[in-house]
Every structure is written in C-alpha cells, then in structure tokens.
Amino acid sequence: MAERQSLNRRSLIAISGAFLMTPHTLRAEEAGLVRRNISSFVLHNWRDHFDRLGKGIIISDTVTKVLQHWTEDEEMRIYPTSVPLTDELTKRGYTEVVEKRENPGWAPTPSMRERNPEWPAYVPGGDPSNPLGTRALYLSWQYYRIHGTQDTRKIGRRSSNGCIGLYNEHIEEVFDRTPVGTQVKLI
C-alpha cells in the first residue's frame, strides 16, 4: 500500500495566489506518495497523462476545479478554476493551445444563443461584461477556452458554459508562461 503524506506549508511557496512546487515536493510525488492540500484536491503527475513535457503541460481537473501548469523547465503551479455547469457542457480529453489572445472579444456559441437568445451577439475585449476576462488560451476544440473572468464569484464553482475560467491575474500569469503548442488535458 502506498504511503500517504500531507503537503506542509513549507512544501508549497505561494506566488501571487498560485503555488509553485519545490524540488522536495516533486521528489515526493515521483516516489508515489499521495498528497493533498488543505482544499483536498489531488495533485496529478504529468507523466501519468503525457509521454513528454514538450513545450509545457496544462491539466485541468474538472472535478476538483484545479488547473496544474508545468512549464518546459518542469516548474509547476496550481490555480483554482471555474468549470462547466453540467457534464454535457464539459469536454474531457487531450487538446492543445492553438492561439493566445489578450483582451479577447467574445461571441456566444450557437448553442448558447439558442439557450439564451437575449445575450448579445458580440462583446468586445476590455468590456466589463466580457466573460473571457483579460486573456484567453484557445484550444484545438472549437469554442473551448481557458480564460480569465470578470466575475470572481465563479471560481471554484460549476459556472461556465463550457470553458475553464481563472482569476484574471492567474490567467495573465499562465498566458505569459504558455507557448502555442502547449499540451492540455481536461479530466
């Protein structure tokens, strides 16, 4: 049976609301120790999902509402997220970052317009009512994004129509550290 170990505060270094894994905690993870933080989310090892690190990896856990981001130099940070409202709106599987936009404009998908005909056809970037926030990572799946949000009450909840949302300051950090071609998995 695998030994269990709790994360201690020294194992995680807070960086602008995200967490950076130290070499000590990475060695514990590689040793197969099960670790949980005070919010009870499970940390994933990228090697359990991908063959190589490449340009970087993002794993978004839609159950525990956490995004883990590894850069190509193996630095990993953790961010709380919002996730889709229902399982029907949730995509799972492998994709990749195909485009990045600062202050992206937003247009509801055809199915969103069908469910919410009162919604505007388009909201420009920078508009306070724009649900994509200050940055967006466009994935190879049509209409699916990892983006910021103006409504911080959504983080930690099932609240989106299909995307993964982060606080604006977190998506700006992920955006700056993520090249096009970064591998992504939603679980």
Automatic annotation (TrEMBL):
Alphabetical GO biological process terms: cell wall organization; peptidoglycan-protein cross-linking; regulation of cell shape
Keyword Glycosyltransferase among UniProt keywords: yes
Pathway: Cell wall biogenesis; peptidoglycan biosynthesis
Region (Disordered): 102-126
Domain L,D-TPase catalytic residue range list: 56-187
Family the entry assigns: Belongs to the YkuD family.
Protein name: L,D-transpeptidase
Species annotation: Pseudooceanicola antarcticus
